[in-house]
């Protein structure tokens, strides 16, 4: 009898543990909670409508560990375009915990999931991240108070980005030319010997580089510096 009761108690405990997981409520139009956050197309004017656009809630224990929860939902139509239906979502492994949530949307033609749409270069968008506390059933789930509207963006897919990167790399690579570059002044080409100046040229260069020399010239004026070497001396040079 005791073994039977123990087995029933263990089975009931396992069932309660599997069923009792924290839940959140999610919707972008909840009047009682002050939530009114429609989702718009890339023009930030046209609200998303119908099954041509999809949305899903992402949640995680930290803002950088979000993963999809619940199910993929289409947008409502008519006067409710831009909104999704409010749902209660079970957060696996949670009880009464703080989780971070985000609403993500994309065009259905680009993929069945958000990640597929982004990789394909389709239009997509994400809301701000909203912290929420999970509630154990049968309690009333909390709603994403503070959720804000957002617009879709259109970006090229991974393949397009790689192609654009390759084209940019080719454009920035300098073209090889067969023309021989002239060496910089004073630099000899390989295999070429520098031509030695004559004794007269060396003497002239040395004289012109001495800035401290002076010469006497007619009519008996002393001139100093490089200009003195360019005038014909009629007498002799004196050091300064």
Largest sheet report: 6 strands, antiparallel
Anisotropy-based shape:
globular
Structural class: alpha+beta
Taking all Cα atoms into account, the compactness measure Rg is 42 Å
| Fraction of helical residues | 10-25%
Strand content: 25-35%
Distance between the termini: 127 Å
Q: Please, how many helices?
A: 5
SSE run: HEEEEEEEEHEEEEHHEEHE
Notes on the structure:
- With 240 residues, this protein is of the alpha+beta class.
- It has 5 helices and 15 strands.
- The chain has helices at residues 2-19, 114-119, 158-172, 199-209, 226-229, and strands at 23-26, 29-30, 35-36, 39-40, 50-60, 67-75, 87-90, 98-107, 123-126, 130-133, 150-151, 153-154, 213-217, 221-224, 237-239.
- Strands 5, 6, 8, 9, 10 and 12 form a 6-stranded antiparallel beta sheet that branches. The chain has a 3-stranded antiparallel beta sheet with strand order 14-13-15.
- A hairpin with a 4-residue loop joins strand 2 (29-30) and strand 3.
- The longest helix has 18 residues, at 2-19.
- The protein starts with a helix and ends with a strand.
- Residues 1-18, 207-213 and 232-238 have low confidence and may be disordered.
Summarize the structure.
The chain has 240 residues and is α+β, with helices and mostly antiparallel strands.
Q: Helix and strand layout, with pairings?
A:
Elements: H1 2-19, E1 23-26, E2 29-30, E3 35-36, E4 39-40, E5 50-60, E6 67-75, E7 87-90, E8 98-107, H2 114-119, E9 123-126, E10 130-133, E11 150-151, E12 153-154, H3 158-172, H4 199-209, E13 213-217, E14 221-224, H5 226-229, E15 237-239
Parallel strand pairs: 4-11
Antiparallel strand pairs: 1-7, 2-3, 5-6, 5-8, 8-9, 8-10, 9-12, 13-14, 13-15
């Amino acid at each position: 009898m005791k073994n039977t009761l123990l087995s029933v108690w263990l089975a009931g405990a396992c069932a309660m543990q599997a069923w009792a997981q924290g839940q959140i409520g999610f919707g972008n139009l909840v009047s009682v909670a002050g939530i009114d956050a429609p989702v718009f197309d890339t023009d930030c004017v046209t609200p998303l409508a119908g099954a041509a656009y999809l949305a899903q809630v992402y949640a995680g224990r930290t803002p950088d560990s979000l993963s999809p929860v619940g199910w993929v939902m289409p947008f409502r139509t008519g006067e409710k375009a831009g909104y999704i239906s409010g749902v209660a979502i079970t957060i696996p492994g949670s009880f009464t915990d703080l989780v971070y949530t985000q609403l993500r949307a994309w065009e259905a033609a680009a993929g069945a999931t958000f990640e597929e749409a982004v990789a394909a270069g389709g239009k997509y968008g994400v809301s701000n991240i909203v912290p929420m506390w999970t509630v154990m059933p049968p309690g009333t789930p909390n709603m994403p108070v503070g959720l804000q509207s957002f617009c879709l963006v259109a970006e090229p897919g991974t393949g397009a980005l790689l192609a654009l990167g390759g084209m940019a790399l080719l454009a920035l690579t300098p073209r090889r030319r067969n023309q021989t570059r002239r060496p910089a002044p004073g630099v000899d080409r390989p295999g070429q010997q520098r031509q030695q100046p004559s004794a007269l040229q060396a003497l002239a260069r040395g004289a012109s580089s001495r800035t401290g020399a002076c010469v006497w010239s007619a009519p008996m004026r002393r001139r100093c510096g490089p200009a003195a070497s360019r005038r014909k001396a009629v007498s002799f040079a004196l050091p300064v």
